[in-house]
Design brief:
single chain; 152 residues; alpha+beta; NE0471 N-terminal domain-like; three-stranded antiparallel β-sheet; 5 helices
């Protein structure tokens, strides 16, 4: 059994800083899980709602107000794996590792673009779109057009 989560802090977008009961800590980026999610995970796509993550005192895992909870063992594995991958990437020359780094960076940028689209729509700054989804679609098309030049 892995250590349980002692503390959670929302950093930005879909990233959480987790501190575990054994003293280890790291950053967990859930963008790829949240952006493509359905069902009970959809509210977490709103970064403001995602930021409401807190610790469930009984299960010692991260939960959100709508009851969504993630497996604490998976969160530990993924957080520590990401830290190891980050360290290794500092010295990476393997083309596959570099490719994965570019994909991860593109996912983070995509999450930022999505958040920007939601903010524009929420502020009423768009005359071109009727829904946040239409705004996001337009931003996504432009984003992928601009980033298609990346050799992922």
């Amino acid at each position: 059994m892995y250590p349980r989560i002692k503390k959670v802090e929302h950093l930005d977008d879909y990233r959480l800083k987790l501190t575990f009961t054994n003293g280890e800590s790291g950053v967990l980026d859930l963008a790829n899980l949240i952006i493509a999610s359905e069902g009970r995970f959809v509210p977490l796509q709103d970064v403001r709602y995602f930021a409401k993550a807190h610790i469930d005192p009984t299960g010692r895992t991260v939960v959100w107000p709508n009851g969504v909870a993630l497996n604490p063992d998976m969160m530990y594995e993924r957080t520590m794996s990401d830290q190891i991958n980050l360290t290794l990437s500092l010295f990476a020359t393997d083309p596959e590792v570099l490719r994965q780094q570019r994909i991860n960076e593109a996912e983070r940028e995509f999450a930022k673009m999505r958040r920007a689209a939601m903010q524009v729509f929420d502020n009423g700054d768009s005359d071109l779109c009727n829904t946040p989804e239409e705004m996001f679609d337009q931003v996504a098309v432009e984003y992928w057009r601009l980033t298609s030049k990346l050799k992922l």
